[in-house]
Design goal:
Order of helices and strands: HHHHH
Distance between the termini: 63 Å
Number of strands: 0
Helix content: 40-55%
Radius of gyration: 20 Å
InterPro entries: F1F0-ATPsyn_F_prd
Strand content: under 5%
Organism: Drosophila gunungcola
Subcellular location: Mitochondrion membrane
GO biological process, one term: proton motive force-driven mitochondrial ATP synthesis
Keywords: ATP synthesis, CF(0), Hydrogen ion transport, Ion transport, Membrane, Mitochondrion, Transmembrane, Transmembrane helix, Transport
Low-confidence stretches: none
Length: 107
């Protein structure tokens, strides 16, 4: 699959219009229904290639947009979510510099 192509598993005659938020591969047990003893086997069945990880991130992005950004009466929630996510990201990347400014009690 090259950049901009449809997934190999996608068949327009079977699936209808393409939805970037949908996984077109073989269906598996959802993570919420996996028993503790089956977690290793379930993780072993995951595709861990960079293309698969990029596809999963892309699907998550599209699902988030369909839920919070694209509705007709979208609220202010996506702006707050992006703000909190960016604040958390920048705090994490600057943590080594910020930890030197802690206030300590010297008693």
């Amino acid at each position: 699959m090259a950049f901009g192509d449809y997934p190999v598993e996608y068949n327009p005659k079977v699936h209808g219009p393409y939805d970037p938020a949908r996984f077109y591969g073989k269906a598996d047990v959802p993570f919420g229904q996996v028993k503790l003893g089956e977690i290793g086997a379930w993780l072993g069945r995951r595709n861990k290639t960079p293309n698969a990880v990029a596809g999963a991130v892309s699907r998550a992005w599209w699902r988030w947009q369909h839920k919070y950004v694209f509705p007709k009466r979208a609220g202010i929630a996506p702006f707050f979510q992006l703000t909190v996510a960016s604040m958390t990201f920048f705090y994490m990347i600057n943590y080594t510099k910020l930890k030197h400014h802690r206030n300590y009690k010297y008693h």
